[in-house]
Amino acid sequence: MSVARVTEIISSSGRSFDDAVENGIERAAATLKNIKSAWVQDQNVIVEGGKISEYRVKLKVTFVLED
Question: Domain containing 26 — which CATH number?
Fold first, then answer.
């Protein structure tokens, strides 16, 4: 029987929401082992001078704990 844990991370990108998701997963994978899935809980943008300067996503990342 496996036991999984869910952790929340916030990631950002200057290009797109998709890029922010990829950045978040890549960074999480550098620290967490056995990542199995992730879902976007929320997304928002930072606006400066009337233009989007940053895309942000809040991710829920699921990983299986080692025995």
Answer: 3.30.1660.10
Judge if pTM exceeds 0.85: yes
Residue 67 domain flag: no
Contacts 24+ apart (CB under 8 A), 20-23: 20/55, 20/56, 20/57, 21/57, 21/59
pLDDT tens digits for range 11-66? 999 999 999 999 999 999 999 999 999 999 999 999 999 999 999 999 999 999 98
| C-alpha pair distances (Å), 12 with each of 3, 5, 18, 57, 66 | 29, 23, 10, 6, 29
- H or E segment to which residue 30 belongs: helix 17-31
